[in-house]
Amino acid sequence: MSQNAVAIKAQSSATKRLEVFVGKWREEGQASESPFGPAAKVTSNHTWEWLPGEKFLIHRIEGRLGENEMACIEIIGPDTSSQNFSVHSFYNDGSQNIWQLGGSQDGWTLTGDWKKDNETTRVRCAIGFADSGNTMTVKWEYSSGGSPWGVFWDTQLKRN
Fold first, then answer.
1. Going from the N-terminus, what domains does the chain have, and what CATH number goes with each?
2. Is the CA virtual torsion 104, 12, 157, 154 positive or negative?
3. Which of 41, 91, 101, 133 is most buried (CB neighbours < 10 A)?
């Protein structure tokens, strides 16, 4: 088997770990006051689906953050330098980000830096699954300049 074929087989095996996300989900929860904005109710619909070939997972979010519309599309694929995944996010406000996602069936962690107004804030998100994979809990935290971690989003998603 060629080196390229081995790499493709390993990639395919790695992306199968993402299968736990695939489907349609309804999110509800709360955003806390933070550098990202005021406290607000979070409601949204999420769809995760495979790009044909099942090498990349496409994630779409549409909903509301308080009175504001929110939308995002993400492309998730293997990070060739680790056992994790790169998440390329594009938001309806014109911003974009690249995150790192790691984990397995029961728990995942998304990490990265959020850049806004020439400030960089370290962000992490803990994602857990329960109820035979039909409930997802999501807790977003931030830390600026070495400050303690603070929660800015705490939500739950239910599979439709």
1. 3-159 (2.40.128.20)
2. positive
3. 101
